[in-house]
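Here is an idea for our session: we take a single protein and study its fold together. To get us started, please write out a protein record for me. Start from the sequence, derive the backbone structure tokens from it, and show both lines together. Go ahead whenever you are ready, and we will take it from there:
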Amino acid sequence: MADIPLSVDKSKNDSIQMSAAFAKKHEMKQKAKEEGATIIEVPLPDAPGATRHGGIPAEAVGQMASIIAERADDIRKANPKLTDEVVRTMIVVHGGDNVEKFIKKYPAIFHTFTARETKGEERGRMMQVIKLKMQLEKGNITPDESHCLLADLFGVNAQQRQELRKSLQEINAKNNNKDNK
């Protein structure tokens, strides 16, 4: 993951902007140079307790989700009668192979951020979840803290949160028992 840039600024080319999360650094530098764009790199998590699970860094997922949502909005503004599927197809065609890779890893994010009915607060809440994941990857919060913050974000009351925490602890205990066998 060390060779993955986060984003390319000042590029009007969707394929270059959307490919940044997947391409190798040297490839992106060449494309950026040709385009007159700038590379912004994703710092690897190096804080104590930092974690990263499969896939691309949450920061890159958030960047891609923002670009995709912006493109969907732009397409709809110019062509208000297009269906979600047509808008998605246009994004894939202009975004290239890297958008297809993103869709394979994160189909729900792609479909949600391109859905006509997903706007404002809903998108904002989803971006908060991605930002929460970023904080977890960087080691700024623990998994337990992330569960509590996620519960707060979705309005889970104190009693439900306590039950959720208990359930999570039981699941973790079972998983630890399996690992120790």
Residues 1-10, 42-52 have pLDDT under 50 and may be disordered. The CA atoms of residues 86 and 169 lie 44 Å apart.
